[in-house]
Amino acid sequence: MRTALIATLGFDEKFCYRAILRHGIKEGDRVILITTQMVERVAKAYEWIRKLLETSYGDRVEVEVLQVELKSVEKAIREVADKIKEVEGYDLVVVNISGGMRVLVVIVLLACMLGLPENLKVEIEKEDFSDIVELPVGVLKIVKSPLGDDKVEVLKAVMNGLRDVRGLSKHLGKDESTIRRHLAALEKMGLIEVKKRKPLIVSATELAGLIVP
């Protein structure tokens, strides 16, 4: 399995180093470090990571640094989004936003929303290294693609106990093909899960409760 690790980089290389170890970066993988100005402390952190990978794998792990300019946030978001798109063919794309400036973290999150490959994982490590928090990518998908009134109506009905296509169609006064289309979109967003395919039976996920109280 090929892994691409994209990590925000600040003065300290520890977060990037721990992410490399945690995800078992190996031959054939790719590491992209994202930072703003390459000041001396950031340059030292990058060089430490580069030498670590070079010593372990030679040139068999591709490592690079992307510097983004904060003067144009839109351009910075696009540059990061383009990097994410470059690696969407990998089996796993990990975006670690533990290091670097807060504005850089926001830029990377917004860039994730532009692409959102299916194999994306977004994580952040606590400052004291005590835990890793994985962000629900489904939330980013919802922000990128608002539900719309029709999908909200279907989701509410599912949350209220209607779980089959025929029942939803009758209750909402919509044809079954429309209901199936909305359910497919809701499943992709992580708001419902399919319990049975034939006949189609669904239920709401915990994430749905955050979106529709």
TrEMBL record:
Location of the HTH arsR-type domain: 150-193
Domain Csa3 N-terminal: 4-114
InterPro entries given in the database record: Csa3, Csa3_N, HTH_ArsR_DNA-bd_dom, WH-like_DNA-bd_sf, WH_DNA-bd_sf
Pfam families assigned: Csa3_N, HTH_5
GO molecular function, a single term: DNA-binding transcription factor activity
Domain of life from the UniProt record: Archaea
SUPFAM superfamilies per UniProt: Winged helix' DNA-binding domain
Stored CDD domains: CasRa_I-A (cd09655)
Alphabetical list of NCBIfam families matching this protein: cas_HTH (TIGR01884)
Protein name per UniProt: CRISPR locus-related DNA-binding protein
